[in-house]
């Protein structure tokens, strides 16, 4: 009952006025208390101000004048680079470094003074340190010492006023744990220079940036954003406290399609082949090999000989290898930067062009007597071979030059070339010059365009900087029949508009083009071509980037990629199924038929392969030699990989490049435990344990 009465009393109207009166009294008391507290607070503040101004004013004014704030940069960690199997190919090692800023010009005397002060602390000589300060003349910041000790850091901080432009930064040293493994592909990092500073807006001068390879191509992904630590510095130059910081954002990690195991195997195979080829070893100054995933276009391996160790550019040992780098051309990625004659490897493409044009049918037979005349020029079969009656499949298998000579000539409407007659052009063309401007131009265009449809003569678009593309040529009769560049697009546009393209070529160029002696391509272009043959005309874009992960994620952490590369179709070479089958059978004969040019290179293989050898006559240092070339894909009916190998000076394609391709394919299939490979030969995906004791690793290291 008491509870009920209490509730009723609260609701009674007659009790309202007494409640308000009591509330007013409570508020009045609180106001008096607050006023008292405010009075005391202001009194304390006034007393404190008097103390500061009168008793300690001089001290605080002096402190205010001498206390400074320094914004110390905190560099981000560069993203790591992983191979297709999750193995680290490039990573950042955290280090403290002492660096000299050069964006404020210093006199020579000032640099000498800095060197004299710092040299004892950095355990070097003043002259040596001065030379370091003068090195890398284009760089806006130069590293004086890396991996510095606490004592060295303390000295720089304590003597900051005596060391203008010198600062301690937390840096990262880029390291490539496998040395020259895919050195040209990975590239290296370097300092920002006066020449490229405008390219890196918002960067700190102390940040390292990609200069070549993947490091350059994906700089925007690998490079994070710097942070800052705001530090108070007293009059003695001592850091007395941290006001706060903005944390850096580390770069994203990337995973490549590159298979570290296969890359190592391929580089060892290439090195061993060169070392064992005593007849041509001195002629081979550069070579390249590329393996592509036929299903995706991903680069499985990309070999560029001679090899390059990116660590030379990041650990200070570059100076010991200058002679090697300047004389060997190792800084070039020969897979994408250099082009050369492809030889007979272009015959499958040109045979397809002839089949589609009706110049050749499956029943075509051409008598190969070892040579024919074109005008007054005699064009011989390689090594004087005589193959007799040859059909299209056999022409590819034995690599009949005479058959393809006839293909090129017929496309250009030059008829009647035999062992006794030089042939001629249709009388309806009138003058010889009109023939060159019309039927000859259309024929050479058909050959070159047929090759270009496969990507030959065009940049592949591989995600690497500085890619070169191949070129087409014709003989110019007004210049003594020397080869001159041929502008395919200009010719096609002119013919479409006027019906002719003025040129001063030679019908012999039709024959040369048909066998790969009037064009030059890069190994990467040839690999894309081989992949397109494997895919029966579907042309995929070659690529190296597979996945991008956040800074704290790796391929083996189970994290979902931020983004992944999607296979890109960049073209389609048209052809009827029977035409593709004919080309495939001719290329299969190359590796399986005892008469095939690469039969011995693939003898005993546990899989079927389609291939094509190429041997082009070239000159190195003024001496005649051969460009050894080979393309292939395997397995035959369900291709997984496509390979192209090029070795100028390597001799016959069958004896050098085809052997390398065979061993590369064996190594890849063994690594991936393909069921057709004997289990006794299976390997793991790990980079071989003997990599750092192999000649492929040691030879560049011993180059200084």
From TrEMBL:
Membrane topology: Single-pass membrane protein
Chain ranges passing through the membrane: none
A Pfam family hit: Transpeptidase
Residue ranges of every copy of the Penicillin-binding protein transpeptidase domain listed in the record: 288-665
InterPro entries: Beta-lactam/transpept, Beta-lactam/transpept-like, PBP_dimer, PBP_dimer_sf, PCN-bd_Tpept
Basic residues: compositionally biased ranges: 1-13
Gene Ontology cellular-component annotations: plasma membrane
Residue ranges, annotated region (Disordered): 1-23
Gene3D superfamilies: DD-peptidase/beta-lactamase superfamily, Penicillin-binding protein 2a (Domain 2)
Highest taxon above the source species: Bacteria
GO BP annotations listed: cell wall organization; peptidoglycan biosynthetic process; regulation of cell shape
Subcellular location(s) of the protein: Cell membrane; Membrane
Keywords for this protein: Cell membrane, Cell shape, Cell wall biogenesis/degradation, Membrane, Peptidoglycan synthesis, Transmembrane, Transmembrane helix
Domain Penicillin-binding protein dimerisation: 74-241
Family, per entry: Belongs to the transpeptidase family.
Protein name: Penicillin-binding protein 2
Species assigned in the record: Alicyclobacillus hesperidum
């Amino acid at each position: 009952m008491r509870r009920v009465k209490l509730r009723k009393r609260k609701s009674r109207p007659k009790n309202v006025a007494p409640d308000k009166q009591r509330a007013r009294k409570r508020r009045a008391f609180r106001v008096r208390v607050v006023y008292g507290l405010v009075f005391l607070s202001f009194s304390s503040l006034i007393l404190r101000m008097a103390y500061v101004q009168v008793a300690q004013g001089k001290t605080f004014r002096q402190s205010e004048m001498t206390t400074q704030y320094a914004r110390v940069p905190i560099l981000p960690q560069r993203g790591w680079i992983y191979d297709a199997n999750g193995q680290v190919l490039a990573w950042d090692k955290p280090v403290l470094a002492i660096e000299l800023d050069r964006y404020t010009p210093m006199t020579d005397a000032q640099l000498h003074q800095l060197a004299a002060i710092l040299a004892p602390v950095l355990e070097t000589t003043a002259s040596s340190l001065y030379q370091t300060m003068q090195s890398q003349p284009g760089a806006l910041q130069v590293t004086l010492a890396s991996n510095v000790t606490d004592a060295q850091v303390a000295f720089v901080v304590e003597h900051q006023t005596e060391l203008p432009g010198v600062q301690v930064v937390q840096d990262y040293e880029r390291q490539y744990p496998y040395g020259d493994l895919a050195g040209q592909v990975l590239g290296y990092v370097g300092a920002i220079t006066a020449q490229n500073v405008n390219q890196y807006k918002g960067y700190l001068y102390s940040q390292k940036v990609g200069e070549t390879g993947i490091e350059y191509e994906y700089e925007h992904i690998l490079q994070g954003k710097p942070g800052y630590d705001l530090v108070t510095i007293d009059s003695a130059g001592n850091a007395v406290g941290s006001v706060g910081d903005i944390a850096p954002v580390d770069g994203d990690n990337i995973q490549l399609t590159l298979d570290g195991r296969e890359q190592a195997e391929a580089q060892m195979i290439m090195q061993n082949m060169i070392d064992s080829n005593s007849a041509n070893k001195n002629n081979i100054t550069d070579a390249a090999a590329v393996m592509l995933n036929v299903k995706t276009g991903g680069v499985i391996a990309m070999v560029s000989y001679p090899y390059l160790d990116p660590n030379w550019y990041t650990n200070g040992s570059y100076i010991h290898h200058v002679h090697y780098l300047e004389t060997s051309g190792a800084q070039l990625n020969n897979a994408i930067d250099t082009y050369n004659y492809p030889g007979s490897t272009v015959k499958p493409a040109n045979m397809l062009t002839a089949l589609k044009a009706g110049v050749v049918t499956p029943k075509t037979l051409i008598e190969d007597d070892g040579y024919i005349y074109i005008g007054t020029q005699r064009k011989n079969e390689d090594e004087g071979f005589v193959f007799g009656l040859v059909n299209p499949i056999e022409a590819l298998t034995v690599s009949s030059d005479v058959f393809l000579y006839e293909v090129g000539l017929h496309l250009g409407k030059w008829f009647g070339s035999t062992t006794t007659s030089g042939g001629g052009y249709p009388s309806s063309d009138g003058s010889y010059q009109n023939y060159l401007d019309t039927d000859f131009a259309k024929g050479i265009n058909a050959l070159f365009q047929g090759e270009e449809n496969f990507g030959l003569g065009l940049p592949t678009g591989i995600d690497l900087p500085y890619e070169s593309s191949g070129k087409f040529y014709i003989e110019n009769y007004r210049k003594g029949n020397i080869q001159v560049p041929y502008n395919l697009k200009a010719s096609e546009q002119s013919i479409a508009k006027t019906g002719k393209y003025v040129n001063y070529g030679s019908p012999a160029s039709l024959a040369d083009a048909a066998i790969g002696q009037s064009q030059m391509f890069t190994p990467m272009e040839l690999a894309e071509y081989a992949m397109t043959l494997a895919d029966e005309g579907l042309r995929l874009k070659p690529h190296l980037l597979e996945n991008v992960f956040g800074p704290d994620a790796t391929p083996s952490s189970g994290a979902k990629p931020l983004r992944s590369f999607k296979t890109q179709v960049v073209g389609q070479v048209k052809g009827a199924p029977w035409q593709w089958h004919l080309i495939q059978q001719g290329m299969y004969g190359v590796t399986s038929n005892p008469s095939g040019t690469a039969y011995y290179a693939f003898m005993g293989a546990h899989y079927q392969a389609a291939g094509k050898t190429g041997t082009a006559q070239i000159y190195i240092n003024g001496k005649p030699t051969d460009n050894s070339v080979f393309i292939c894909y395997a397995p035959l009916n369900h291709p997984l990989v496509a390979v192209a190998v090029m070795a100028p000076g390597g001799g016959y394609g069958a004896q050098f490049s085809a052997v390398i391709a065979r061993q590369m394919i064996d190594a890849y299939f063994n690594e991936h435990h393909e069921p057709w490979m004997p289990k006794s030969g299976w390997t793991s995906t790990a980079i071989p344990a003997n990599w750092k004791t192999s000649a492929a690793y040691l030879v560049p290291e011993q180059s200084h």
